[in-house]
Amino acid sequence: MTISYSLELPTQRVDAVTEFVTADAISEVARVGETSGFSAVHVTDHPAPDAKWLDHGGHHALDPFVALSFAAAATTEVKLLTNVYIAAYRNPFLGAKSIQSLDVLSGGRLILGTAAGYLKPEFRALGIDFDNRGALLDEALDVLGKVLTGADVAYEGTSFAARGVRLYPVPQTPPPIWVGGNSKPAARRAVARAQGWAPFNTFGYATASRTAEISTLEELASAIAWTKKYAAEIGRTEPLDICFSAGNLLDDTRSTDERHATIAQLEAMGVTWLTIAPQGANRAEFIDNARAFAEKFIS
């Protein structure tokens, strides 16, 4: 299967708001992604990033569903990927309403990338128990799986109780769910509960992101092999998308031939999607780099 690509919407670029963080910017970059051959555009989720993290390499983010709604309105076919949405930050029914709204209004184009999260001060700022984040993600997935069927959902949660929530209109087909993270719990959750797994290149900050190190192709191959073994153990037979955020393994400091070779290796491992984050001092340069990547690597 040929690898599909998702283009980052650079809404974290608050150093150049008028270039990157406006309705026009999101719309233009999304259209460029669609016309250049990218299969999706994506954003991340940081509602309350703390200053210390921002001052040491962290980044801002718009609300993912608001940002992707502007991308949806400017396009017709490109998928809309949350990479990743931290479900624990929101009441599961509130999160499901955002998911339902974007998926219905975009004509079923949402891919819900989600994960347990790692930024402890952000959990604290939002009043969420960091140590319970895995269970809270499972709880959110439970609710989402029920409420998107249109059935009346009764659910006793950790901090909420629903006696019969009904959500309409529901998507014709529920959006695919990809679980992010490099750890074995994340991979197990992806295999057991989702349609995809989204590991990422840690390139030296596995400790900061509280996940397992994957910074080489060999480490990724080992992680994928473990995931496939686990799938066999639990009897999963349906395909599992693997969306890898390759980071510096595909940056433009490497030659075109080196990057083609890396992509071929990733495809051979079973990777089905790659997220791409072009560089650029301004929007025009970013767009030029996105198009150049597409011309070289997207068939």
The global form is globular
Report how far the terminal alpha carbons are from each other: 12 Å
Beta-strand residue fraction: 15-25%
Strand order of the largest sheet: 1-2-3-4-7-8-9-10
What is the helix/strand order? EHHEHHEHEHHEEEHEHEHEH
Radius of gyration: 19 Å
Unreliable parts? none
What characterizes the major β-sheet?
A: 8 strands, parallel, barrel
Computed structural class = alpha/beta
Tally the helices: what do you get?
11
The level of helicity is: 40-55%
Count of strand segments? 10
| Mean pLDDT over the residues | 95
Report on the architecture of this protein:
The protein has helices at residues 17-20, 23-36, 51-55, 64-74, 92-105, 120-126, 133-147, 184-193, 217-234, 256-269, 283-297, and strands at residues 4-8, 40-43, 79-86, 110-115, 153-156, 161-165, 177-180, 196-198, 241-245, 273-276. The chain is of the alpha/beta class. Helices cover 42% and strands 16% of the residues. It has an eight-stranded parallel β-barrel, surrounded by four helices. The longest helix is centred in the C-terminal third of the chain and has 18 residues, at 217-234. Helix 9 (217-234) links the parallel strand 8 and strand 9 (241-245). Helix 2 (23-36) runs parallel beside helix 11 and helix 5 packs across helix 7 (133-147). The mean pLDDT is 95.
